[in-house]
C-alpha cells in the first residue's frame, strides 16, 4: 500500500503563471490533483491519499517548482502524512486559508 499523505498547495496566480513557464511538466502534474479550486487571486491544488515521494516524476516536478519559489510569500504548502508528527509547511499556507485541524474519532464519530 505505501505511506500516504494529504497535500494542499496554493499559489498566487501571477506566481503560478511564472512557474508554469519555468518548470517543465508542472501544468500536467498539477492537473492530476484530487481537487483544483480557482480562487480570485490564487489556485489551490489538493492531493488526497497520494504517495508523496520525490522519486515519483509528478511529485519531483511539483517539488522543483516549490523550491524555485520557496523564498516567495506567494504560495502556501502543507503536507500531512500518516504519522502523527509528520507535518510539513512551506511558504504561507495561512495566507491562503490552509490550516491543520486535528480531531479524535471514536466509532466513526468526531469528538
Description:
With 111 residues, the protein is of the alpha+beta class. It has a single domain (5-110), classed as Alpha-Beta Plaits (2-Layer Sandwich), CATH 3.30.70. The chain has three helices and seven strands. The chain has helices at 13-22, 26-31, 57-69; strands at 5-12, 35-38, 42-50, 75-81, 87-91, 105-106, 109-110. The strands form two sheets. The chain has a five-stranded antiparallel beta sheet. It has a two-stranded antiparallel sheet with strand order 6-7. A hairpin with a 3-residue loop joins β2 and β3 (42-50). The longest helix is centred in the middle third of the chain and has 13 residues, at 57-69. It is globular, with a radius of gyration of 14 Å. The protein starts with a strand and ends with a strand. 24% of the residues are buried. The mean pLDDT is 93.
Distance, first to last CA:
28 Å
Give the total of domains.
1
- On the 0-100 scale, what is the average pLDDT? 93
Shape: globular
Order of helices and strands: EHHEEHEEEE
Biggest sheet, strands in spatial order? Answer: 2-3-1-4-5
Percent helix: 25-40%
Given this structure, which CATH class is correct? Answer: Alpha Beta
Please report the number of helical segments: 3
Examine the coordinates and then state which fold CATH places here, giving the name of the CATH topology.
Alpha-Beta Plaits
What can be said about this structure in brief?
By secondary structure, the chain is α+β, with helices and mostly antiparallel strands.
Amino acid at each position: 500500500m505505501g505511506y500516504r499523505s494529504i497535500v494542499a498547495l496554493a499559489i498566487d496566480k501571477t506566481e503560478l503563471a511564472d512557474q508554469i513557464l519555468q518548470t517543465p511538466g508542472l501544468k500536467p502534474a498539477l492537473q492530476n490533483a484530487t481537487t483544483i479550486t480557482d480562487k480570485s487571486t490564487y489556485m489551490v491544488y489538493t492531493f488526497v491519499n497520494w504517495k508523496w515521494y520525490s522519486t515519483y516524476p509528478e511529485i519531483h516536478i511539483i517539488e522543483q517548482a516549490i523550491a524555485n519559489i520557496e523564498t516567495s510569500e506567494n504560495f502556501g504548502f502543507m503536507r500531512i502524512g500518516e504519522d502523527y508528527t509528520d507535518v510539513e509547511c512551506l511558504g504561507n499556507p495561512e495566507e491562503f486559508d490552509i490550516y491543520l485541524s486535528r480531531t479524535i474519532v471514536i466509532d466513526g464519530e468526531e469528538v
